[in-house]
């Protein structure tokens, strides 16, 4: 079963997109071109997803 996305957030430099899921996971995508991204990781971040996504995307 797939979890729904709670919210999306771009990194400060605009190079990574974080998809924070309801199940406490964070999917990180890297910008490849202006209109495409590539999944670069999936992490279990628990109850503090924003801070954890920042750490794993750098």
- Largest sheet composition: 4 strands, antiparallel
> So how many helices?
1
Number of strands: 4
Portion of residues in beta strands equals over 45%
Give the SSE order as H and E letters: EEEEH
Would you tell me the overall average pLDDT? 80
Taking all Cα atoms into account, the compactness measure Rg is: 11 Å
Task: Tell me the structural class.
Answer: alpha+beta
Helicity, in percent? 10-25%
Which word captures the global form?
globular
Low-confidence stretches: none
Number of domains: 1
Give the gist of this structure.
It comes from Heligmosomoides polygyrus (Parasitic roundworm). By secondary structure, this protein is an alpha+beta fold. It has one helix at residues 49-57, and strands at residues 5-10, 16-21, 25-33, 36-44.
Verbal overview:
This is ANAPC4_WD40 domain-containing protein. It contains one helix and four strands; from the N terminus they run ββββα. It is α+β, with helices and mostly antiparallel strands and 58 residues long. It has one domain (5-57). A four-stranded antiparallel β-sheet has the order 1-2-3-4, with helices on one face. It is globular, with a radius of gyration of 11 Å. The termini are far apart. The mean pLDDT is 80.
